[in-house]
Amino acid sequence: MLDHLFKPGSVAVIGASTKELSIGNRVIKNLQDFGYTGPIYPINPKADEVRGIKAYDSITDVPGEVDLVHIVIPNKFVPMAIDDCGKKGVKVVIVNTAGFKEVGGEGEDLERQVVETARKHGIRVFGPNCQGIINTDPEIRAYCNFTFTKPTPGHISIVAQSGGVAEVINQRFSELGVGVRMYASNGNACDVSIPEIIRYWGDDPETRVIVLYVEGLPNPKEFMDAAAEVAAKKPILGMKAGRTDEGAKAASSHTGGLARKEIATELIFKRTGILTFRDEEELCQAAVAFASQPIPDGRRVGLITNTGGPAIIATDELVDAGLEIPPLSEGAASSLKENLYEAASINNPIDVLATANAGHFRAAIDTLMDEDDIDSVYINFVTPFFVDTESIAKEIAEVNAVAKKPIICNLMTDKNQWSTTIGTLKDGGVPCYSFPETAARSLIALTRYNELRANTGGEIRTFDDIYVQGAREIIDGAFDEGREFLRSADTYGILESYGIPVAPWRRATGAEDAVRAAEEIGFPVVLKAESSSVVHKSDEGGVALDLRDGDAVREAANGMTRRIAADDLEFLVQGYVEGGTEVIVGATEEEGLGHLVMFGIGGVYVELLEDVSFAVAPVRDSEAGEMLDSLKASKLLTGFRGRSGVDRDTVIEVIQRISQLVTDMPAIREIDLNPIIAHEDRITVVDARIGMKEG
Amino acid sequence: MLDHLFKPGSVAVIGASTKELSIGNRVIKNLQDFGYTGPIYPINPKADEVRGIKAYDSITDVPGEVDLVHIVIPNKFVPMAIDDCGKKGVKVVIVNTAGFKEVGGEGEDLERQVVETARKHGIRVFGPNCQGIINTDPEIRAYCNFTFTKPTPGHISIVAQSGGVAEVINQRFSELGVGVRMYASNGNACDVSIPEIIRYWGDDPETRVIVLYVEGLPNPKEFMDAAAEVAAKKPILGMKAGRTDEGAKAASSHTGGLARKEIATELIFKRTGILTFRDEEELCQAAVAFASQPIPDGRRVGLITNTGGPAIIATDELVDAGLEIPPLSEGAASSLKENLYEAASINNPIDVLATANAGHFRAAIDTLMDEDDIDSVYINFVTPFFVDTESIAKEIAEVNAVAKKPIICNLMTDKNQWSTTIGTLKDGGVPCYSFPETAARSLIALTRYNELRANTGGEIRTFDDIYVQGAREIIDGAFDEGREFLRSADTYGILESYGIPVAPWRRATGAEDAVRAAEEIGFPVVLKAESSSVVHKSDEGGVALDLRDGDAVREAANGMTRRIAADDLEFLVQGYVEGGTEVIVGATEEEGLGHLVMFGIGGVYVELLEDVSFAVAPVRDSEAGEMLDSLKASKLLTGFRGRSGVDRDTVIEVIQRISQLVTDMPAIREIDLNPIIAHEDRITVVDARIGMKEG
Predict the structure, then answer these.
(1) CB–CB of B246 and A162 under 8 A?
(2) Spatial separation of the C-alpha atoms in residues B598 and B594, rounded to whole Å
(3) Cβ A244–B316 below 8 Å, yes or no?
(4) What is the ipTM metric for this complex?
(5) Any CB–CB contact under 8 A between B415 and chain A?
(6) Can you name the CATH fold of A1-144?
(7) Which of A117, A609, A649, B549 is the most exposed place for a label (fewest CB within 10 A)?
(8) Kind and range of the H or E run holding A12
(9) Would you call B258 an interface residue with chain A, using a CB distance cutoff of 8 Å?
(10) How do residues A235-259 score in pLDDT, each as one tens digit?
(11) pTM (2 d.p.)
């Protein structure tokens, strides 16, 4: 519980200063200016008072209880100060001081000492190298932070690893006139973590939307658990920086941040139900809509406009993002015809005309609210001097107060001349934007969230026709032998244990044995050389395809024996699969996360166009289907211009079986089924590799 | 010359009204409020005065000369009013009234009458169905417009087809505190056109940047000529709406706008040197930078930051767009080491630390300005309370005043508390932004513009080894015959006349003739059936590939004769080309523009992935190369994983020869070389089609 952090009954500042331009002074000033409701205790052995408040020599001298202590003294004195806090019974410290993990070397040691000392006393640490927190709750008014933006109370809570980014976002909400509930920027995060903060806000009824910024996830599992739990209750809007190599480098050289697993972070966001953004402004603008609007049930937008061009731009933006602007029903059209100007356009977009009055707007909005095939309402509202814009605003606000569908308004106006109209809309909880693109993107975010929410949760299919014990024995054996990669026979054995269709295969110890094996399997076959000395079979002449009779097999085997000349040479004989489409399924372990499962179409699609999709294991049903559908070349899977498609259900099943395999067997570092030959009615793995974790 | 429109010596308003909330009143109020420097003449037979100014019964009663007349009376009276204006010797009319081409039918007739009447008197018409113009020139102060935003004088001029969009952009510059020079929104544009306005501003020294919004280009050639001429002198930042089908539909149903040629408009922008945007906010923000900053010579950005997270975000944004953040020279590093805090990061990004003072910032900026490998400077400047931000701002502004490299500043601050610092930067001409993404995107726009500028102009290669006369005779003959598509032999004849390498071919009239032709060409060959009754050869069994001897040719020819059984059946015998990569070159005529030339890689790349590139004919050298390089699968052309590449120079040459062909022969409606078989050392057209314009 982080109540002592976000709702402190009292705050002390170790390093309180009489100098105006110091953090030890500013923290106290901010608490005063923001109207903190509890007692403040400056700690400064050289001053009698700081900013008019009695100062104490030591935290232990403070007469009352102290919940929260700011520490703003030089880094090397911090562990000692925490020890003092322990003696006093302090609950939580915010360490603003820098010079810890982010500087490496001694700083890392110091940070370790901070954690150990605090743990000894049962103190929670926020930071170090951080800004602090803000809570706008009228009963608390805690501004435990040295920054400059003073938010008004609202329903958006902000947590950001970087103080600079937290401040920019907070500042933007302030400019937009939108309130904030709580704020936290925890820097090095040696103890109190972002997942913990998110979880705390999940239980805070006044927090309706959580805004999140991270540069890396030090503990993906902890993050996923907390985020999934909270995202089920309220929207989390997330942004991850360091997505380019250069950005990641900049991130890791700053505040000891972690910048790894680029694909993984966005997948984790998606998996847990966090809506991902790549732009702070877009995130802030969307948050405004999330804080007041319901989530639409679908993609179908009804547009109302009193000006032409901006409706075109909004249409472009919405349609580009996959939203729909469907035609209206006959009933709607006739109702509009009755209630709007004759020259008005009663299609969707509905152009009520620049001269439209409050009644016209109301009729159009009501029509869209009643329309079954419309999920959300977008309004372009320019304020011509010759109409009563105030009445129009009142109508929009009135509908908004009871609407079950979201309303988004692009309000094109002069903010000074039409301040009353703006106020009416804002006070009425109507999210207003200054550009059609901005308004459209916020509606797109609401709609994306609806689909994200529908896709999180969902089933993880598990298969019970699996011979786990057999697979486990092979894995354990390979692990004991310290193998980096499994032998082919073991690999195929494991796949078969997990019900994955493999081309029929036999091991063979020599040419004649191979011929016999081929005859058992049936021609044509493939012959592969197996030896600890062979790394890249095909490069070393260790693969022969499409062998059509015993002689061909014998000749190929003899050739390989000559070329490879290894004592441990054996052969793998496999049925040769003709035709079909090559697909690839793989999984790799990501530190602290589990496995990332991959799907792609073989050949140029993976290698040239990098057309692959990922999901975090265990893969849910909906995710597995999406892995196929999200490929740029996905049409190849359903059949394209005479080429037949693939057995979709079985491909999805193989993805799920591989997901189950790597989840069951964490000793597998990587697995690669490449290629799988997919036909319309079946699929067959024809080559596979399993790599093991180091023992 | 549009001086009478933008610098009117006097303005009359036909339809001047005493009613406050009418356009006929508001236009006069706006002129008054904005401080128009010339006389205003209200025309209203029922009033003695309007807004305190003497009114006249008719325009002909006005005592002085009248340059510009606003017409705000009902549509059907407009032609008559223009006739009166003619009698008075008026130079230009702004027709605000709607109900013309955009409503169709009678409106179109009325608009034609407007144009004819005006032409008779030598009057220029602006509109109809339009807002009007603004000129902030202190000696003019013309606000001939009924909208509400009053711009301050500046160097950006705005022209937009849609009044709503023009207003939004104007409003945004006003909010950003950035001045505007002139403004024009000409609605239906029956006479004064956007190209004409652009050309006028090209000659206006106070216009440094032109912002352009269109929904369609009614006359692409006129537009291209004007835009190319002006873009050579100053930046034009352009946006085109209606890029989705739905958006285009919305555009064409509004104000009689044209929404066609989606690819073409962006290509025309690029060809003429207009920087394309897809977002108004991004365009406005970029315009601020263009209005004060030099254009960088390259992509290499030096970053200075006093906060961590925003530097990561800026890095992501810049690198994603292809900009570079190169390491600094040793000299730069040692200079930084000497002048910055010890803990500062002297890499690029340079982290001067939150505590950095003016001297630190100055040292970092000077270092980047002196660094040869840096083309532009990006600054993240958060304003901590404990530093003297005003001094930092002064240093930045001081360098900016003389800098030859552009400076962009992401200023993270509270606009009220740090208003002096903001003022120092803005007055110093430093473009300031509130988010790292926004600042980065404006720098990206400057950099994109540098590359765009470098790519416009350039050579158009023309070939003199061409037998134009031969090609022309074939085309003329086909035209006279009223053919929709040329015969194959004619098609190949034209290609050969233009020096395009075609697989060897012969016409043959029967099976034996075909065998002889095949022997002349050399086996293997392809046999194609030719008949006016055969539309899709391969679907109708009219193509036989890889025929290896005379018997095979005979058999194929006899089979086709049986199947097709047409009186005019002939054969085309062609050399069969093996191996290689299939590419496609084509060209289609676009109304009012000339031809659009297309390039793609055959097979799934064109059909499934829609991986094609375009350029407007005549295609310049740089454009032809870019057509190859801009494909997603362009690596296939240079060779990829064992597959060899193609003869790049010859592919480029074929694109240019096709460009020359369609430019020489405007009767060609479409041409399609599909496929061309491209090998490493040669390319060969193996199938082609030429479609003719209707006679």
Answers:
(1) no
(2) 13
(3) yes
(4) 0.89
(5) yes
(6) Rossmann fold (3.40.50)
(7) A649
(8) strand A11-14
(9) no
(10) 999 999 888 888 877 776 554 443 3
(11) 0.91
